[in-house]
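Reminder to self: tokens first, then the designed residues, so the page reads top to bottom the way the pipeline ran.
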């Protein structure tokens, strides 16, 4: 009975988790999978079957067909050296890892561009200060222009 159900983390929740649905799902997936299609990226038997030659070949379940974008990510993140090296099917974990690595690289690029933009704004502000320009003077000039336009409009309306 204890093997079939367990308390959730010993937290005293009083809930039991059955492992039966997981086993049933695995059996269902195994029944739906075609027998003649290999699940492995190399097309051979899984490792440990004794059919390996002198060179060690990594055989991992490969059930995801990468899109062109996924292939570019795999190249950009350094997983493969050329498009020809990418197999027709790769593990979903490999795609996820490449996406995470690309996400981190893009974040680093954005951080660098933000720092460069900050220094550009500092330099621009220093140049504007040398010309005695400021946001306050721009605001005062803009409001003076609006007052002048309003006065001209009032004079034209009065005529």
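Designed residues (159 positions):
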């Amino acid at each position: 009975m204890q093997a079939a159900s367990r308390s959730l983390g010993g937290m005293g929740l009083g809930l039991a988790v059955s492992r039966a649905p997981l086993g049933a799902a695995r059996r269902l997936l195994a029944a739906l999978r075609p027998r003649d299609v290999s699940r492995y990226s190399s097309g051979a038997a899984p490792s440990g079957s004794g059919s390996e030659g002198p060179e060690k070949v990594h055989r991992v379940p490969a059930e995801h067909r990468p899109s062109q974008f996924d292939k570019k990510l795999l190249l950009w993140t350094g997983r493969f050296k050329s498009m020809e090296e990418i197999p027709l099917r790769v593990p979903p974990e490999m795609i996820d890892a490449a996406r995470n690595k690309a996400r981190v690289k893009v974040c680093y690029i954005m951080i660098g561009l933000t720092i460069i933009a900050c220094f550009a704004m500092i330099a621009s502000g220093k140049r504007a200060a040398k010309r005695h320009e400021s946001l306050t003077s721009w605001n005062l000039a803009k409001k003076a222009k609006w007052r002048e336009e309003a006065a001209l409009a009032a004079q034209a309306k009065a005529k």
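Helices lie at 20-32, 68-76, 92-130, 135-158.
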